[in-house]
Amino acid sequence: MNAVFAGAQRLRDRSRHAAPQVFDLIREKIVSLDLAPGTVLSRPELQASFGLSATPIRDALLRLQEEGLVDIFPQSSTVVSRIDLAAARQAQFLRRAVEQEVVRTLAQAPDRALLTRLQAFVAEQAIFADEGDFARLSASDEAFHRALCEAAVVPDLWDLIRRRSGHIDRLRRLHLPVEGKAQQIVADHRRIVAALAEGAPEMAQEALRDHLSKSIALGDEIRARWPTYFA
């Protein structure tokens, strides 16, 4: 596990306020599957990797437990949780409901600056997809959707979605290397941007709904491919 967190010592803040940084770093490793479901997280090893005391490590793990990304067994171990398809479906339902309203709102009053920003995201995503750089593609994908929520002035709803999306995000990461999936994400984003530019709310909602439905629709198939990763 130490190798996963190589370089983790470069924290901006080593005080008691370090827990959010630790949380973000561990969460990223879990969602990216660098820390696979079922991985045991040793608290002493995490303390050594981050150069921190027990308290910020404990606080970060408690936050991860709240998001359903780790299971903490008192006086025993902390384990990266397995993917729960039921939780993934609920997160998908929440995200689809919020983001459909977001794109409808944005399409009713197209904003040129926002469209330019979204087009820049899509351009870099096309490069990452062609290069097979799934980590950077995923980060840009998240930034694209966050930008939509921020433009609709509902950033807190994006934070809520993120807190509930650990299981669906891992499902998507398992789906991402499938041939053609990365390119499909780019094509979907282009459709969403085009609908926003045309000021077509229903078209934007349809594109968004279709975009967010693909991985969860294949949930059982993905689980059959990676059975040890799922609850």
Sheet bearing the most strands, described?
3 strands, antiparallel
- The counted number of beta strands is 3
Through-space gap between termini: 22 Å
Q: Strands across the major sheet, in which order?
A: 1-3-2
Structural class call reads mainly alpha
Global mean pLDDT: 92
Q: List the total number of helices.
A: 11
How would you explain this protein's 3D organization?
It is a single chain. The protein is mainly alpha-helical. It has helices spanning 19-31, 43-50, 54-66, 85-107, 112-131, 134-151, 155-164, 166-175, 181-197, 201-217, 219-225; strands spanning 40-41, 70-73, 77-80. A hairpin with a 3-residue loop joins β2 and β3. The longest helix is centred in the middle third of the chain and has 23 residues, at 85-107. The radius of gyration is 19 Å and the shape is globular. The two termini are 22 Å apart.
Secondary structure topology:
Blueprint (H helix, E strand, L loop, with lengths): L18 H13 L8 E2 L1 H8 L3 H13 L3 E4 L3 E4 L4 H23 L4 H20 L2 H18 L3 H10 L1 H10 L5 H17 L3 H17 L1 H7 L6
Antiparallel strand pairs: 1-3, 2-3
Helix pairs in contact: 1-3, 4-6, 4-8, 4-9, 4-10, 5-6, 5-9, 6-7, 9-10
